[in-house]
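User: Hello, can you help with two protein structures?

Assistant: Certainly.
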Amino acid sequence: MAPAENPAEPRVHVAPDGGPRVADIAVPPGPSLAADCVISEAATRLIEADCERAYLVDADGRPVGLVTAAAVLRSCCVGTAGDRPALSIACRGFGRVDAATPVAEVIPGFREDARERLAVLSVGRLVGVVRRLDVLRVALDGGGRRRPHRLRGPHWRASALSAADR
């Protein structure tokens, strides 16, 4: 005898063809910084953008690191910020996913990993970010509806974004 389904529990729906692609649910990546910027510049940009993290990108728009406000603050507190490269405190092991990947394929990674977001790449260039919450939303509603981008807060102002982000 099969166990009865609990109607109060949400059901996870994934279309057999993979359903929506990561690009369908990705949000803008926020501000990015030149890979050769220094820690003091990264601190200023994070504050101006009111943002906790920013990707460091090379001249071709390829992400090479992720700088967080926590890493910048640690560096400032121990007096090592100044003109040191931001890449020296950046996380280089951040999660990445190709924009064409079906959302269903990233679900296991979010389930097993502590990451909250993945950088979305198209031809190696940073084009967005997909959050664990966005993937959960697709899994629960079957992927039939796309969440509208709600660009809120001062960190989404065009003036705070680099030319590569516009």
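That covers the first. Now for the second protein you mentioned:
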Amino acid sequence: MIRLSHALVLALVLIIGSAAICYHRAGRSVEQFCEAASVSCEKYGLYGFAAKCRLIAAEKCREAAVASAGVNEAAGRVAHERAARHFVEASRLVRAQGTGNYATELLSRAWNEAPWDGGVRAQLIAARLQENDPAARAWLVDLAYLDDDPDALALLAREHLDTGRSSDAVGLLKHAASVAPDHFGVQLALCDALLATGDSAASQSHARRALALAKSPRDRLAARDAEVAAGGATPSRWKLLLEYIPAAYGPTALVLLAYLLLLVSPWIAARIRRLLDPTRTPGAAAAID
């Protein structure tokens, strides 16, 4: 019979071993280790832990940026951008838990790290618009019409779509696509806008373009669903998921399999008993083996 103490000891050993392996694979970088831990926690619905890991990673990037100041400006810029990305991810995870105000605060911290990043800025504006911030509206209009910022144009076009102004949205997005033809968000928004005007053929074309530009499983699924909504034929959702699941859950499955095999092993059970009960006589231990 498997004892609870044996199962807990074996689980602790495997967790520590897995963490050590992940830390080594991350190049002994705390930031990359925390990023990997955040991704793992999010997969299993542990959004609070995932957000905390992202915040730790962001602070490590900020420390690297400070250390690079005046020494290596290029490295410092990259560190600031990585910190901003971690703050954005933390904001998304926090918002999923229903704490919108803190999520907006994290987006502000992200923008402070990389004010040149249009994507971060657009997300911050969107969050402030949801809070009915009048300054955010003026900021959005200036960026869209004066600076031709593609993220701002896409965000403004989404607002036009929500209010039924599909033709205006298409005009903005076509201009944004001419400014930034390889922008995933613009292509995906243009797909939705064209579909709203009834142009399904052009909508499918931009959905396929968005699918080609997608860099994450989440973006690939969004582009795939957009093309299906426009009447196109794309790889099934399950096919796209199967491209992602082995890489995402394969290591966990192997660890779990190893855990189950070791858990039912009489030899391992005997060694754990010896560890937990060092006063056991050699004769009794031999009888267990």
